[in-house]
Amino acid sequence: MSWLKQTFTSSIGRKYAMALSALFLVVFLLQHFIINFTSVLSEETFNEISHFMGTNVLVQFGLQPVLIFGVIYHFVMGFVLEIQNRNARAIKYAMNKGSENSTWFSRNMIFSGLVILGFIGLHFYDFWIPEISHKYIEVLPEDSTRYFGEMVEKFHEPWRVGVYALCFVFLSLHLMHGFQSAFQSVGARHSKYTPTIKKLGTLYAIIIPAGFIFIALYHHLTAL
Amino acid sequence: MSTANGLNLTLKVWRQKNDKAKGQMETYQVSDISPDSSFLEMMDILNEKLINDGGDPVAFDHDCREGICGSCSMFINGEAHGPGREITTCQLHMREFKNGETIYIEPWRAKAFPVIKDLVVDRGAFDRIMAAGGFVSVNTSGNTQDANAIPIPKADADKAFDAATCIGCGACVASCKNSSAMLFVSAKVSQFALLPQGKVEAKERVLNMVQQMDDEGFGNCSNTGACEVECPKGISLENIARMNREYMSASFTADKQ
């Protein structure tokens, strides 16, 4: 299998793997948003879906490990590639007008990525760690009605809503480039559909993060 | 004799004695430069002045001075080949600059393109990538077939020709924030992959050329598109997507281990 190792350690192979993990995360983010949005529409529905996602064996022990691997791979490889790329130019230009030929967000994926990494840390601290503790460490009795209340409680604090909103702005910037870039990396580019992918990417990069900000603000304001 | 619209300019030029020396930016003044002169002619004037003053002229690559050889390779005011689109440095005219302006002139910056002297870099990495697979093996025993005998769809011929217009100047590497050579390599892979004559060795070619590209120490492509914008021949990112497809397909299907 040395050919397979060689393929996925080559510059193109790594880009493929980065793109595939990115597309997986794009799909994950969409389903996460849809589930979260149900909390605006119905407390009961949100609790039901959250309970299902938190207790279903396939989700917990099939999809969750894949998600964790995807997230870790995307971040670790992002850093590896960034270090390689920085090393590929030992001396920087005295003057470099990057804005003349590329967008800010395409040149600064590592910075928007770092903000997202910080956000995931906060998100894990807020929701994932207490959830794992509830289920597997303290082994508390199952309560399918607790999810909505736990979420609203978190969004009670204005600083947290502010931090979430700021992080989602960086997520938007990351997606502005990342969405269409993932398709380019896997070679999916054609004059027939690439313009649509780019428009779809821009829409996704605006609607999904804005939607998450709306949900956080909605629960903050309605709980006042 | 000075002219009414002659330009007086401050030049900040990278000077480096040889590949081992530590270089630095040096400041020079040039005056009464005609707006109609090319950037290289302005550099010639600077060098004449330096020689007359007993100094060392600035070394820079140049050959055809009509935008087809790919020799000239200056990073001018933060852009490969300077301001302007789809031009080489020799096609850049001084009318693009304002009187009194300070112009930064630097060599291509990439670990894979080491500086030999001043603004001259060693682009041998591109030659080694070409030697790894950038060719079509043909029978040279005297019975070579006429290439025109093979029907080629017009769209494919056009795309192959567009890819083949790459002059290998290295502006893509110089412009890319990662010093990636993907646009160059993909153009060379595409120009053959699109034609029946090149398809025979397509799998080996893409695997070998990408391997050589990685060995040379170029960075990774992150699809910023800077290379396409700064390319003097307008080589499209479509070629990179094609190479990505070719590479992955060849990895799984080629006989090469």
TrEMBL record, chain A:
UniProt superkingdom: Bacteria
InterPro entries cross-referenced by the UniProt entry: Cytochrome_b-558 (IPR011138), SQR/QFR_C/D (IPR034804)
Membrane spanning residue stretches: 66-83, 104-125, 161-179, 200-221
GO cellular component: membrane
Keywords from the UniProt entry: Membrane, Transmembrane, Transmembrane helix
Cross-referenced NCBIfam families: sdhC_b558_fam
Protein name as catalogued: Succinate dehydrogenase
From TrEMBL, chain B:
Domain 4Fe-4S ferredoxin-type as annotated: residue spans: 157-187
Record InterPro entries: 2Fe-2S_ferredoxin-like_sf, 2Fe2S_fd_BS, 4Fe4S_Fe-S-bd, Beta-grasp_dom_sf, Helical_ferredxn, SDH/FRD_Iron-Sulfur, Succ_DH/fum_Rdtase_N
Top-level taxon of origin: Bacteria
Cofactor: [2Fe-2S] cluster; [3Fe-4S] cluster
Gene Ontology annotations of biological process type: aerobic respiration; respiratory electron transport chain
Family to which this protein belongs: Belongs to the succinate dehydrogenase/fumarate reductase iron-sulfur protein family.
PANTHER family on file: SUCCINATE DEHYDROGENASE (PTHR11921:SF41), SUCCINATE DEHYDROGENASE IRON-SULFUR PROTEIN (PTHR11921)
Name of the molecule in the record: Fumarate reductase
Record organism: Roseivirga echinicomitans
